[in-house]
């Protein structure tokens, strides 16, 4: 079949790769001059199968309320006159209970595992190099109360078969000796040895180049302006995609058999034109990438600093510090007072943790909009239009779930059943075998 993929982030490019594996003809459309130049560009770099808890949990409303007025809080909700933001917020509150948390974690763990295997498969098949480090993820805590919460979290995740180990301070320093200077302030940590890190943008761009080499067409600097449909109420389907070259302004309509919407946070406004309401809202985050002055003293294990809720990942002779979330609309600005404060806080924290290790005078700041759903579970599967497929809403874990989401959707489009217990949308699954829905036992969280 001819398939058009809208969006060349990690999700769109992974989908293109696996569609090629299934023997389809693929065209990818993106407004940027290259792949992975929006949210997949400079993220936290973590392949975080085992740290996948969604933001929504029973304790979240109280925490978020406390953070509401603080400009430097990890999660900032800026109320706007935007019904989509309120709809998202209310749905999020609806997920803040133990039953929903468990149901969501189950699916996120399943997708994470499947995706990790898919990623390993792509790396084995292609030999792509992207500063990959298979050193695990270490989450460290600076207070006894946070450590107690982290220990309970590890226990919960072990119930899903996740290997998350609880470590004392000395063990934390053994796993990552570079934390020695900050050691006295560390209470302990949790460690997931099977997790990884690597540069999502480098991976995606190299995979896009390989897709081209295998015959895919990438139309860059091409904006998707709208999607046309044809047919009556029952047989309505996509008849073409209206695109416009950003170089010459020339509009045209692209036609295929199947269409995939993988436009990250922009998927929701685009599909609203068709009466398809996806609950995806942008959650703005930041990163700072610093050149290392003393690479031998820098961390190699990917880190999560619980106090500031930030990720720190080693990328060759650079270090990436990423985190925080602002629910404040589609704002990409790095120059507002809040943005500058948040970016500066990332660098300041790195200097507290690793004094003198990186050059903090020339930080490379970046911001991206996570395509967030209230559950943190992406939309993967068929929309209610039979030839329009969804692969969007990957929130905090799009790099982790990219390869698997691409593989699963390509299989669904090809009429196959992915080997994954996941709530795919629409009537995506082939009817031959009944799909066993994910069942979550309702257990109280400790
Ligand atoms: C600060 C931060 C840290 C993060 N850290 C991690 C991490 O450590 N691990 C992890 O797993 N995930 C992480 N994430 C999340 C991850 O980066 C995202 O989930 C992922 O990049 C989403 O990929 P995507 O392909 O859906 O979106 P995108 O990468 O944004 O791709 C969508 C593409 O669609 C194109 N597009 C949109 N609209 C149009 C249009 N109208 N016309 C043409 N093209 C269009 C865009 O140009 C873009 O290239 C982080 C995110 C942030 C912000």
What can be said about this structure in brief?
This protein has 446 residues and is of the alpha/beta class. It contains ten helices and 20 strands. It is 30% helix and 26% strand.
What would you say this structure looks like, in words?
This protein has 446 residues and is α/β, with parallel strands linked by helices. It has helices at residues 10-21, 60-67, 83-94, 98-126, 144-158, 169-175, 200-213, 267-272, 337-353, 398-413, and strands at 2-6, 25-29, 46-47, 75-77, 137-141, 165-168, 188-192, 196-197, 217-219, 222-230, 237-245, 251-254, 258-261, 281-292, 302-305, 310-315, 318-327, 358-372, 379-382, 388-392. It is 30% helix and 26% strand. It is globular. Strands 4, 5, 6, 7, 14, 15, 16, 17 and 18 form a 9-stranded mixed β-sheet that branches. Strands 9-2-1-13-20-19 form a 6-stranded mixed β-sheet, with helices on one face. It is built from 10 helices and 20 strands. Flavin-adenine dinucleotide is lined by residues 7-12, 29-32, 36-40, 43-46, 48, 223-224, 262-264, 266, 285-287, 311, 322-323, 368, 370-371, 392, 394-400.
